[in-house]
Design goal:
This protein is an alpha+beta fold and about 280 residues long. About 20% of the residues lie in helices and about 40% in strands. The protein is built from 5 helices and 18 strands. The protein has an 18-stranded mixed beta sheet that branches. Strand 10 (about 150-155) and strand 11 form a beta hairpin.
């Protein structure tokens, strides 16, 4: 049997699997089974760690519910930090975590209820995101999907994002166009999608379609990218509250577009994944 811990960050839920307490190989098929809402434990993804690292005390791998791997997840990093706190592996001091999307620094606050993460620097350059075509900052370009054309900006905070500013946003918009934009030929590694409404200079609202996961109640990296775009377009200041269906995140966008994210984490449960579940076909 494989031990798991389940947490959510504003309704975005992950299972933490410690490789020292996992008996099953984490194949894409196994990931899909575990994350299935009806036939498995159910989650928006799996956090595998802590893993050994040469550049940080901890390393982390992040898997989407479709079995693919993500470079970085803001909510996942907050959850993993809370897990390390609960396991007594970190205390109040800031610590580093290595991810495929870069090194981040985290600090656990309020006895684990809140976590702050230095997410790294946002880039709008096409070759870093990546976006096809000549090297450029991807700001205010046009993308057509289905019967609709959108103005969009692209960004990376260690993983790719397509941010679409609109006067109004709604879940139906993300569900209808998110899956089409995720796999658009402009984005060779697929992309996360945020539909962005600027409320005022300190508040934005987003609806999210997450690469490999689908419609999502909240996302830390999506919040970081959307806030950075809002500031780059001159529509917001540096301190931004990001409003999402699952709740709010505080994002600080510095002058160099490095991001500090602060938000809550809630423990849901812990238990064991039975081998019988993994034997059944989904």
């Amino acid at each position: 049997m494989t031990k798991f811990w389940k947490y959510h960050a504003l309704g975005n839920d992950y299972l933490v699997l410690d490789p020292q307490q996992a008996t099953e190989a984490l194949t894409p098929d196994t990931i899909r089974r575990i994350c299935h809402r009806h036939f498995g434990v159910g989650s928006d993804g799996i956090l595998l760690g802590p893993l050994p690292s040469k550049s940080a005390p901890f390393a982390l791998r992040i898997f989407n519910p479709d079995g693919s791997e993500a470079e970085k997840s803001g909510n996942g990093l907050r959850i993993f930090s809370r897990f390390l706190w609960d396991q007594g592996r970190v205390r109040e001091q800031e610590f580093a975590i290595e991810t495929p999307g870069g090194l981040v620094r985290a600090q656990v606050l309020e006895q684990g209820r809140t976590v702050r993460v230095e997410m790294g620097q946002v880039s709008f350059w096409s070759d870093q995101i990546p976006v096809t075509g000549r090297r450029r900052e991807v700001l205010g370009e046009t993308l057509t999907v289905g019967d609709r054309a959108f103005s969009f900006c692209a960004a990376t905070v260690g993983n790719p994002h397509c941010v679409i500013p609109l006067t109004e946003v709604a879940p139906e918009l993300a569900r209808a166009f998110g899956p089409l934009i995720e796999v658009h030929p402009l984005f060779p590694n697929r992309t996360n999608v945020q539909f962005l409404q600027v409320l005022d200079r300190r508040n934005i609202q987003i609806e999210i379609w997450e690469r490999g996961a689908g419609y999502t109640l909240a996302s830390g990296s999506s919040s970081s990218a959307a806030a950075a775009v809002a500031r780059r377009l001159g529509r917001c200041d540096g301190a931004i509250t990001v409003h999402m269906p699952g709740g709010n995140l505080a994002i600080e966008v510095r002058d160099d577009y490095s991001i500090r994210m602060t938000g809550t984490v809630t423990k849901v449960a812990d238990g064991e994944i039975a081998a019988e579940m993994l034997e059944r076909q989904v």
